[in-house]
Amino acid sequence: MYANKNSYLKQLKDFLNSNTPKAKIANIVLCALAVASIPVLVLGAGAMGNAVQIFRGSKKYSKKQISSAVYSIKRQKLIEYVCDSNGKTTVKITKKGETRLRAFAIDLMEIKKPNKWDGKWRLVMFDIPMRFTKGREALRYHLKELGFYQFQKSAWIYPYPCEDEIIFIADFFGVGKCIEILTVESILRDEHLKKHFRI
User: Fold this and answer.
1) pTM for the whole thing?
2) Range of the domain at 134
3) Any residues with CB less than 8 A from the CB of 25 and at least 6 apart, and which?
């Protein structure tokens, strides 16, 4: 499920393996550190330089580029270095870095379409209080980006399983308790929906 950490880390891992030019190297470094199962142990005092060893063997980026990216995300307080009593330094992703990763996972998110439609509709409904206006608008934006059809003012529809993805997005924007996702067997006069989704 997208709502748990392992699934969004898989999303980031898929991104790293895709060779996509979408992201800046700083984002790639942050994703790679997350996928490498932080905390990552870095030996000695030269933590900044040694952190790039996680990318050893990469031909796409130079050591200088990676080191610069690591420095950049540390300056943004997305990662931190923690030194224990034995002088060992550990790289950890901060709460701010975790938030950045989740936002990035949402930007990368795609709903995989099965080979055959199961004949059911997924209806996302929400009643979000005015004090959560930003969260409501963000949810609407991402529903549209993912290809949902606006069925009514606060109801969006999609033909394929999408519960995990929508819960992940809604929780991220703080409106998870305000949404409901229904699986509908049939809809009266759904011809226009089938035409819209080409099913």
Assistant:
1) 0.76
2) 121-197
3) 61, 65, 66, 69
Q: What pLDDT, in 10s, does the model give residues 73-104?
A: 889 999 888 877 777 777 788 999 989 888 98
Give a yes or no: residue 113 inside a domain: no
Tokens 């379409």 appear where? Answer: 113
Query: Same structural domain for residues 125 and 103?
Result: no
Residue with the two structure tokens 């997208």: 2
Supply the CATH number for residue 193's domain.
3.30.70.240
pLDDT 10s digits, 127-142: 999 999 999 999 999 9
Distance, in Å, from the CA atom of 150 to the CA atom of 127, rounded to the nearest integer, reads 15
Q: Are residues 42 and 103 in the same domain?
A: yes
Q: Which two tokens stand for residue 24?
A: 């800046």
Q: What is the CATH number of the domain that holds 85?
A: 1.10.10
For residue 42, give Cα distances in angstroms to 59, 88, 103, 144. Answer: 22, 7, 27, 42
Determine whether 164 is exposed, middle or buried from the number of CB atoms within 10 Å of its CB (0-12, 13-18, 19+).
middle
Q: Which residue intervals of the chain are DSSP H helices?
A: 5-16, 25-35, 47-50, 63-75, 95-108, 133-145, 163-172, 191-197
pLDDT for residue 21 is more than 60: no
Nearest CA among 130, 65, 76 for reference residue 101:
76
What are 151-168's pLDDT values in tens digits?
Answer: 999 999 999 999 999 999
Residue 36 pLDDT grade (very low, low, confident, very high; cuts 50, 70, 90): low
Amino acid identity for residue 78 in this structure: L
